[in-house]
Design brief:
Elements lengths: L3 E5 L12 H11 L4 E5 L7 H4 L9 E4 L2 E4 L1 H11 L8 H30 L7 H23 L11 H11 L11 H12 L1 H19 L2
Parallel strand pairs: 1-2
Antiparallel strand pairs: 1-3, 3-4
Helix pairs in contact: 1-3, 1-6, 1-8, 4-5, 4-6, 6-7
Length: 217
């Protein structure tokens, strides 16, 4: 059965591939699985039909038969566990790949999201100018740690895995800020992820949605 995922009808990222459905699209491309995409508006995301799939009114969601999932990390893990290509066969390596998925979401992503909030939500507050350097320092601390761990390796733990997929997409959120360029090792790591054919296919599919939406304006 072909899974159905949801994505923004008009993505705030303007086709840059930063929305979280990109992670799911990329994972499906990596394992060679097709999907149907149901586009939802911001208004529809707050309606009962979508809230039944995602209690917080966000995207993406994933439906396959009787299964309905929300949260991009949970969806990518489900895909990786069901299809070969994103998790190693060795049990210990598999566990480490999953640990990197959690690290991307729980350790690296929060300060990066905090930067977006500090700029676009709190930017007009009187204390914003003092807060922004503190937020950036927290990000740099995480990036220094991650860069040291990656070293000169291509991927975080041997071959490319779901852990790399989640980490690369998390780091991509920093590209507009220019901060990623301060860490050449990580910039090269992200570039390797973007160069993967599966990423390119997923990116093109998401960009096509934005282009179509623009054409209707």
């Amino acid at each position: 059965m072909t899974p159905i995922i949801t994505a923004f009808e008009r993505s705030p990222d303007r086709g840059q591939g930063l929305a979280r459905d990109m992670r799911v699209r990329w994972a499906l491309e990596e394992v060679g699985q097709p999907c149907e995409v149901r586009l939802v508006s911001f208004e529809a995301m707050k309606q009962p039909a979508h809230l039944a799939l995602h209690p917080f009114g966000q995207i993406p969601t994933y439906e396959e038969g009787d299964l309905a999932l929300f949260e991009s990390g949970a969806i990518v893990l489900h895909i990786a566990e069901r299809h070969a290509g994103l998790l190693p066969d060795d049990a210990n390596a598999r566990a480490r790949a999953i640990a990197w998925m959690f690290a991307a979401l729980n350790t690296v992503e929060p300060p990066i999201l905090e930067l977006a909030i500090a700029k676009f939500v709190e930017g007009d507050k009187p204390w914003s100018e003092q807060r922004l350097p503190l937020v950036k320092d927290r990000i740099r601390n995480r990036l220094q740690q991650l860069s040291a761990r990656l070293g000169d390796a291509d991927w975080l733990d041997g071959a490319f895995s779901a852990g790399d997929l989640m980490m690369v997409h998390t780091l991509l959120r920093l590209k507009p800020s220019g901060m990623l360029g301060e860490f050449p090792t990580l910039a090269a790591y992200v570039a390797r992820g973007e160069a993967r054919p599966a990423y390119q296919r997923a990116f093109d599919a998401q960009l096509a949605v934005f282009s179509a939406a623009q054409g209707k304006l």
